[in-house]
Specification:
This protein is an alpha/beta fold. 29% of the residues lie in helices and 24% in strands.
């Protein structure tokens, strides 16, 4: 099993916290966001992980070296940011045709998600279609989210009003990325195409959704003492 972690962003909305430390190395309950993502993948049985880096990448590299995780980890350093889709395409060159998880460490990942990972994988293998973990925005601690998608049975759509937020976890195959002509492209572009083709599926998460996007939200989440 393979996994890809997106850790290349600049974290501008998290300033001043991210002026000297990359966002994935911020801690909640003495555990960095990056470590939470890695541990979730390891606990699900992933044996090889790729992490894309750009901003303050040396700090991420030395963190990985220091932690000695019991899994193969490769760093995909981006000299110029490739956006989410381009970053995943570059970072998964060693994965061949195998499906893999893509995980965004901005979400506070906990072992409560392990059951949903299993179910996400089951939907993927049953249908052989990209599958995203979505959450109803009423479960989000941050009420500013407008919603990304709607979910009807397992089918994902994008409408004028969207009730579901993308959690930052998906399972895909490189074949959905390789048709892109540009080196720099967003996952959104890929998802829009898959929705048109009726090839994008979703699973509804039942977990309370904690997602870090501003320094205010960081302080709020820290004050909540989330039970891991």
């Amino acid at each position: 099993k393979y996994g890809m972690i997106l850790a290349a962003g600049l974290g501008k909305r998290m300033q001043p916290l991210t002026l000297k430390i990359p966002k994935p190395l911020l801690e909640i309950n003495n555990s960095t966001l990056l470590e939470r993502a890695i541990n979730l993948l390891i606990n699900h049985g992933v044996h090889e992980i790729s992490i894309n880096t750009h901003y303050l990448s040396d700090q991420i590299k030395s963190f990985i070296t220091r932690k000695k995780f019991q899994v193969k980890i490769t760093i995909s350093n981006e000299e110029n940011l490739l956006d989410t889709g381009g970053g995943v395409l570059k970072g998964t060159q060693n994965f061949g045709d195998e499906p893999f998880f893509v995980i965004n460490p901005d979400t506070i990942w906990r072992n409560d998600y392990l059951e949903e990972m299993k179910n996400l994988e089951a939907i993927y293998f049953k249908n052989n279609k990209s599958t995203l973990l979505l959450v109803n925005k009423i479960l989000s601690i941050d009420h500013s989210f407008k919603g990304d998608f709607n979910l009807n049975n397992e089918n994902i759509s994008k409408d004028d009003k969207n009730q579901f937020i993308f959690t930052g976890l998906q399972i895909i195959n490189r074949s959905v990325l390789t048709s892109e002509k540009s080196e720099v492209f967003s996952m959104n572009k890929v998802w829009n195409r898959l929705i048109k083709e009726k090839n994008l599926l979703g699973l509804e998460s039942k977990q309370k959704f904690y997602h870090l996007n501003t320094s205010d939200m960081y302080r709020k989440i820290q004050s909540l003492n989330i039970i891991d």
